[in-house]
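Appendix B: complex inputs.
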Amino acid sequence: MKTETSLTEKQLKKIACGIRKNIIKMLTESKSGHSGGSLSAVDILTSLYFYKMNYKPAEPNWPERDRFVLSKGHAAPALYAVLAEAGYFPTEELKTLRKFGTRLQGHPDRRKLPGIEASTGSLGQGISIACGIALCGKHIDKKNYRVYALLGDGENQEGEVWEAAMSAAHYKLDNLCAVLDYNGLQIDGFVKDVMNIDPITDKWRAFGWNVIEADGHNIKELIKALDDAEQIKGKPSIIIAKTIKGKGISFMEGKVKYHGLAPTYEECEKGLCELEEYEKKISEEA
Amino acid sequence: MEAIATREACGLTLAKLGRVNKNIIVLDADLSESTKSIIFAREFPERFFNYGVAEQNMTASAVGIASCGKVVFINTFAIFATGRTWDQIRNGVTAGGFNVKIVGSHGGLSVGPDGLSHQCIEDVSLMRAIPEMVVIVPSDRIETEKVIEKAAEYYGPVYIRTSRAKSPNVNNEDYKFEIGKGNILQDGSDVTIIACGVMVEPALNAAKALIEKKIHARVINMACIKPIDKDMIIRAAKETGAIVTVEDHTVIGGLGSAVAEVLGEEYPVPLKRIGVLDRFGESGEPNELFKKNGMTAENIAEEAKKIILRKNR
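Resulting structure:
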């Protein structure tokens, strides 16, 4: 959360690493869920929640809050880990992911968990919902909050995404910033093989959006992109963030099978070791 | 006041509500002239948003607007309002518990010449299947006004079906609409005719014709199809022993099905569902289409007579 003194890049990297650890742990515990697309989104979510966005975990419905909509609802584990880290609920609760009676449903359920703006999971809808919030903020309530939405790359195959893109440009929603988690993989294989979405930057630009390209695992680039997006007036922005599915866990990186697969206990141990190594490396950095 | 179409009554009521409730936001998908949402748009352009021919985005955007505390009314033809956007309504509006009202105009065969692509005969079934969705089919100007007012007052998702054709007034001006309640328009003890929307008028005409044959039909206007007035249906079954349902909609999943579910579980009596059978509509004037599909006042009276013979058989 944006504070008087912003967190350093190193602190943000550490937070991202901790979130990855929690994602692996919760998925192992639940024995199901989407590993790859949760891990690819971590640095984007970290930059949003611990650098860019204004919100109050103790007052989830604070009217002035910046809004975030997880349009790629299957990355719920990443969002839950981030919300726990931000203080919306105890980290301990992450263990309940996908279990009977949990507030941490398989896909985000706004009626169960504070901090969730919209129930998502059916792809394409989240970006439209974000457009609606942005329209209300800009044209009806005339408030200053900003609206963020995280899209999957395969999600760009949904026609609704382009209906939303058209409407956001039409209504000049410059308080809206989408981020595309472009990890190049979807359930059935490489996005380019299943249904190519490229040239994706040209498409968004042609729909009237300000397009920013960034390395989706480079915190510095991401926070600059988020800041730059805020400066653009008269049109919505999208950050095309190049990411790696399964990022942070070597044996999951770039592997299709981890789209909807949870790690085993052995894989979890191995993954946590890797993340701890990485954490040490960050600490040793100047 | 002369008879107007329920779609027009909806537009007029939205404008009326807009004057007192600044939280009412109206959306349309390039059909505001036809749905009559334009009546609101002319008066409150700053609270009306046209989404173009993009119903899915309009519906999910309504979720976003509603999440900011607004009462959002979506308007388009029933076929697009419920068919093209079912997933957005199911996962976005209803599962999210948002205060969005979906008004599907041009419901049923009464759309007429536009033909089957625009004659939505499945909207009530589609909406009724979604958990927590309230489904209402008003029958005339008086009722539409009260339904729209009630929908705005009620927190949560509501589907309201209006019609293209003019509907003569069948309700009294002082009629009070309640969600979950039916309304007995005419009492009788020989048979009950339960109708909704544009079929209430032919149901009343059928009852009139039956009186000449010394048959006293009870006529219920069941505008609220979900939640349905179980008590009123059970009472009708007990007191009249036979029921005919009439709807400008497929008999699969609509009013007839809702009544059949109650009767089947609570108090089985002979039942005849009048409506569109398992087939599509076609171009033609509404009266021609109703005649072909066995949905006229004469057909209703005929079926009522037949079902009385099935009592105690």
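DSSP finds 13 helices and 14 strands in chain B.
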